[in-house]
Amino acid sequence: MGDLMFTLIWGSALFAVVQKSAAGISASQLHQDIDVVEFAVESDTASTVVDFCKRYECSFLGKITSKYFHIKFKEWTIRKFGGEKKLQDSAKRFYRNGDVFPNTRVSEAWRYGLNGSGITIAVLDDGIQVDHPDLRQSIDDVSSIDFIDMDFNITPDTLADSHGTKVTGLIAAEANNNVCIVGVAYASTIIGVRILGEDASITDITEAMALSYESEKVDIYSNSWGPEDGHSYTTFGRVSESALIDGVTLGRNGKGAIYVFAAGNGGKGDNCNADGYASNLYTIPITSIGIDGKAAHYSEVCASAFAATYSGISERKLTSTSLNSTCVSDLQGTSFSAPEASAILALTLQAK
Ligand SMILES: *[C@@H]1O[C@H](CO)[C@@H](O)[C@H](O)[C@H]1NC(C)=O
Ligand SMILES: *[C@@H]1O[C@H](CO)[C@@H](O)[C@H](O)[C@H]1NC(C)=O
Fold first, then answer.
1. E strands, the chain, where?
2. Interval 3-19: pLDDT, tens
3. Is 209 in contact with 61 (CB distance < 8 Å)?
4. Is 213 helix (H, G, I), strand (E, B) or coil?
5. Ligand nearest to the Cα of 138, by number
6. Model pLDDT, residue 269
7. Where are the domains positioned within the chain?
8. Cβ(172)–Cβ(212) below 8 Å
9. Fold classified for 106-351
10. By three-state DSSP, how is residue 97 classified?
11. What is the value of pTM for the model shown?
């Protein structure tokens, strides 16, 4: 294996670079108390990583992206360790509201026969109440996943985690049932991907797995989350960036998956150019206007903002589904513009 350079990315948001030498690699002193550690390892081929693991007693867990593989060390065998703290509170939410969409001409699209049927949207958020009476017909709960608890039950345990249920209603709430609202793409299929939650923090690896989850089924990944507003420059880790590149090149049978992101709620004091999720080449960042047709007070100004959809301002807020089978009418923020855009894109994909 010569001078092969492995980049190891630790499952809890640190990364290490290991230069393999003839002497092999030895245990780091930093984390002796942790006896199982997961890494993303960069390599051209899986077989190189499998060989590496045979030699250094790690377990090969599988492929994450086209250039990153998931491995697990039973104990630390890292010679040189350098750390970098990555996006921690990724669960920072962009709250928003919404109930009418005066200029999006969605009802015209519906009359034209478009409703999102045949289009699958992954909602990356804090979970979804799968048996909500206005959502249950849209959710593919067999394909949904909870990356926080590592199981397949995406219904949140706490009412504090209602964000994803609100986001989902705007996309896919059932039509003609007199419950809450009708989603813009009411016949689309939703796959819930739980990556946020109270006290949860996710890693570059988890973000990558979420952004490439069920990539053979998902057409659009709807993301109403991102770095904390008003602070510094933050961007994707290298594994999640790799997942995005795979998605836009290999997704949708080579036509490219679509990544919609909320552009952030930092207002005029913030700038979404500094939000590496919104300003990334492979994402579609969506900001908000209010019912008055002007930028919402929380909207950020940046060159990368791709489009705006309606969201709530004090004069009129948005309505959607929420936990405990309820409806809410107090939503505002770019979090609720992003799913509207995802749903409009679903109608567009269905049309062509
Ligand atoms: C969605 O539209 C398709 C085709 O226009 C139609 O067959 C289907 O019944 C519609 N679904 C719903 C839930 O209205
Ligand atoms: C959830 O719904 C149940 C049944 O309607 C109700 O008894 C309960 O108080 C609700 N919980 C909250 C926190 O609203």
1. 5-10, 14-19, 37-42, 58-63, 68-73, 120-125, 145-146, 189-194, 220-223, 258-262, 284-289, 307-310, 318-322, 326-331
2. 333 445 544 323 333 32
3. no
4. coil
5. 1
6. 83
7. 3-94, 106-351
8. no
9. Rossmann fold (3.40.50)
10. coil
11. 0.80
